[in-house]
C-alpha cells in the first residue's frame, strides 16, 4: 500500500463526502480510491468511514485521523513546494468556479495572459451563478461577490466592482427618466436579480449623504442568472442594477443609459475563496496572486 497516496485519498473523501467526487478530484478510478481507503483501514485496524446509500462520513476515529493526516499532508506539500517552486513552473489541473457575467466579462478575457505565463497549468471553469459547495465539491477555489458567511472558508479580497443603474433609451422615452430613487415606485418596471440560492430578489441599492439605502420593490421580471438579467434590460423590459464591467460597453454604445448617477450603488466586493483545511498548491497560489493583480482593472469596466 502507498500510505501517502492512501492518506490523500481518505482526506479527499472526508472533504468531499463522496468516493466519486474524491476520485474525480484526484484523477483516479473510483475502484482504485476505494481500494486505497480500505487498505488504509486494514493497516490501521479501525473503521475510518461510515458508508450509507446516500453519503459517506467519517467515524469518530476517522475524524481524529483526518485531523492529524491533514497536517502531515500539508507539511509534506510545504516541503516539496519549498524545494521545487524556485526551479519549476507550476503544473497540473486547476478547477475554478465563477459566476456567469464575471466569467464572460472579467476572467475569460484576461485568461490568455495567465495561460501564457503558466503553460503547465490546465484550467477547468465551472460557470454558474449558483455557488458550489467548496468543501464537498471538486474545485480548488471559487470567485464570488457579496457577503461571505461561511467562516470555515478562507476568503481573499480581490477587488470591488462598480455598479450602475440603467435602462434602454426606448424604455426611458416611454416611461420617463426617474430623477431620484423614490420615483422608481411610481409606475416603473424593474428587472430584479434573484438569488440563485434563496430565490429572493436582491434589493436596489443607492448611496446618499446618509449612507447606503436599500429599496425592496415589486419587479416586472426576476431572473437568477447574471447574463440573462442584463439581457432583459437590453431587451427593454425595465430598469436594472448591474455591474459596470457588464453594462459599460452597452452604455458607451448608447444601447443602455445610466440613470440616477448621483445615487450610484455602492461598490460590490469580490473574493477568491478556498477551504481552510485544504493545502494551497503552487498552481493555486500563482493563480490567486495573478487574479489579485488583474481583477481590479477588469472590475472597473469599460464605458467610463
UniProtKB/TrEMBL annotation:
Annotated keywords: DNA-binding, Transcription, Transcription regulation
SUPFAM superfamilies, per the entry: Periplasmic binding protein-like II, Winged helix' DNA-binding domain
Location of the HTH lysR-type domain: 1-59
CDD domains, A to Z: PBP2_CrgA_like_3
Gene3D superfamilies xref list: 3.40.190.290, Winged helix-like DNA-binding domain superfamily/Winged helix DNA-binding domain
UniProt superkingdom: Bacteria
DNA-binding found in the keyword field: yes
InterPro entries the UniProt entry points to: LysR-type_TF_proteobact-type, LysR_HTH_N, LysR_subst-bd, WH-like_DNA-bd_sf, WH_DNA-bd_sf
PROSITE patterns reported for this sequence: HTH_LYSR
UniProt record similarity statement: Belongs to the LysR transcriptional regulatory family.
Protein name: LysR family transcriptional regulator
Species this chain originates from: Leclercia pneumoniae
